[in-house]
Amino acid sequence: MSERLIAVYEVAGPAAEAEKTARAIAYEETVEVPLDFPLKASIRENVVGRVAAVAPTHEGRWRVEVDFPAALAGGRLGAFLNLVYGNASLWTDVRLVDVRFPASFLGSFSGPNFGLRGLRELLGVQGRPLLATALKPMGSTNEEFAAAAAAFARGGGDIVKDDQNIVDTSLESFRSRVDAIAKALSRENKSCLYFPHLSAPQEELEERLKFILDRGLRGVLICPAIVGLDTLRRLAASHRAVFMAHPAYSGAFYAQRSQGIEHSLYLGTLMRLAGADISVFPNAGGRFSFTRDECLSITAKARAPFGHLAAMWPAPGGGMGLGDAETMAADFGTDAIWLVGGRLLMHAGGPEAGARAFREKVLACASGA
After folding, report:
1. For residue 294, how many C-alpha atoms fall within 13 Å in the half-sphere facing its CB?
2. Which CATH superfamily is domain 4-106 in?
3. Percent of the chain that is helix, strand, coil (3-state, to 5)
């Protein structure tokens, strides 16, 4: 157990209290006994986590590092999550903010199937951000969804996805809807990709994914917080598809900033580790409370070197309009997906005109015009 996995937490101070909390995490996440429990020397030396650092951060908060034997995670995503934030997640004022992984642990994961480079090659698009939209609203007919998707493709869009709340309770209705949208896009003879929402009971996910891929589609939208991070990992490892991860249901992990998991760790590092090619998150200034720094940090985690794992696409969205284009270009650069839903679909002239207007903005921002 020589290789170590270092977990970084933010906890409440003062210094003595932060040190005590760090020691409690080290014990709770490994041996789960009181600090004064009479452990055998071999267990204390080879199993119990070690407090590596304690330092002040801001407003009475302290950053503490606890390193664990990497072998305790066994190269398994579930075991890793349980190790670094199992029982500690039940404590108030303990937030998991970062993890440093040894190469041996990362070697157990495949990561994104396509990532930045692969998706660009699939689309044949270089040198600019990608433009994506979501089919809305729930309750529309298959024909209405298909018409909107086709119009978006005609306007030059790159990716059209189901909205995350579009679900089909029966396999037959799912097949019918996906088939109608896929046929409409095919008739446009465009390279625009369609990602249906892969949402079903666990026992139906494989069948639905097989139908999608057999239909010639190249990827899916998936909500990892709902289906499970390890489910995403398993599907991505066994199917050559693009997985676009949506953050629905995940807000409880990071929205309370004194507890939970740091935005960038959950939506950046963990999505990439689980095999997402694209991570969707709400951009600052939209309908949700993400800050600009949090969005930039997610983006950095998505694209930074991470062992052998491919870089992942950040996909900021959530209420973005044409007026946000310059800021998005400055913040996220060319290797990002602009996810524009309602504002694009309700553009004067419809989805085709909306896609064309946003595409022109994308191109202008990419060229620096």
Report:
1. 20
2. RuBisCO large subunit, N-terminal domain (3.30.70.150)
3. 45, 20, 35
What CATH number labels 115-367?
Answer: 3.20.20.110
Separation between Cα atoms, residue 85 and residue 30, nearest integer Å:
11
Residues 6+ apart with CB under 8 A from 194: 149, 159, 160, 161, 181, 182, 185, 217
**329: enclosing H helix or E strand:** helix 325-332
* Residues linked to residue 130 through DSSP beta bridges, in sequence order: 337
Beta pairing partners, 50: 67
Q: Are 314 and 302 in contact (CB under 8 A)?
A: yes
**Average pLDDT over all residues of the chain:** 95
Q: Is the pLDDT of residue 197 over 80?
A: yes
What would the DSSP string read from start to end of 192-214? -EEE-B--S-HHHHHHHHHHHHH
User: 369 pLDDT band (50/70/90 cuts)?
Assistant: very low
Cα angle, residue 299 at apex, residues 158 and 312 outer, rounded to 5°? 55
**188 — phi, psi (to 5°)?**
-75, -15
**Phi and psi (nearest 5°) for 154?**
-65, -30
**Could you tell me the two tokens for 130?**
């990608």
In residues, how long is the chain? Answer: 369
In the chain, residues under CATH classification 3.20.20.110 are 115-367
Tally Cβ neighbours within 10 Å of residue 106.
Answer: 16
Residues of the chain with CATH 3.30.70.150: 4-106
